[in-house]
Design goal:
The structure is a single chain. With 164 residues, the chain is mainly alpha-helical. The protein has one domain (3-147): Four Helix Bundle (Hemerythrin (Met), subunit A) (Up-down Bundle). 55% of the residues lie in helices and 10% in strands. A three-stranded mixed β-sheet has the order 1-2-3. A hairpin with a 2-residue loop joins strand 2 and strand 3. It is globular. The two termini are 28 Å apart. The mean pLDDT is 96.
């Protein structure tokens, strides 16, 4: 199996799970946050939906330079979150389809101007910085839902609110 095929299957699974979370976020909870240092529900949910766009950026470019600017989209409701997710997932799958194994082994850099935060293979970035990062923040979102009495969907197995 080619590397891209493995990532496509995993991406589709994680996107479907993420969609279930994003669809449930009530607009009235968008400003809520569990602590003053935490992201709001809106910021965190938008970050999760937007991160699916990082697949394409990682595979189609050689770096992300924050000094060049990076803005997270602004959303007003769960439908807009899902639209961002769906757009980013479609672009990610397209990028993955055209990425061969050799491209996954090329270096990718995250920087802000001259300051380099990391440089590693595109495969390692897709796995560690993108996929694991999405799962981490989606886990936070599930806690945000629980605290706000919003039913948590089944993800890798049943939740207290939903069977598979």
């Amino acid at each position: 199996m080619a590397i891209n095929e493995a990532f496509i299957g995993e991406l589709q699974h994680e996107a479907a799970t993420t969609r279930k979370i994003l669809e449930r976020i009530p607009a009235e909870t968008f400003d809520w946050k569990p602590h003053e240092k935490s992201m709001s529900m809106n910021q965190l949910a938008t970050h999760v939906a937007d991160m699916f766009g990082w697949f394409s950026h990682t595979l189609d470019t050689d770096e992300l330079d924050f000094a060049m600017g990076y803005e997270q989209p602004k959303v007003a409701n769960a439908q807009e979150l899902v639209e961002i997710l769906d757009k980013n997932v479609a672009a990610a799958i397209e990028s993955l389809h055209r990425t061969d194994d050799a491209t996954f082994m090329k270096d990718w850099t995250l920087r802000s101007g001259e300051q380099v935060f990391l440089q590693m293979s595109k495969a390692a970035v897709v796995r560690g910085m993108v996929m694991n990062h999405i799962v981490h923040h989606r886990g936070q979102l599930s806690v945000y839902l629980r605290i706000n009495d919003v039913p948590v969907p089944a993800m890798y197995g049943p939740s207290a609110d939903e069977t598979m």
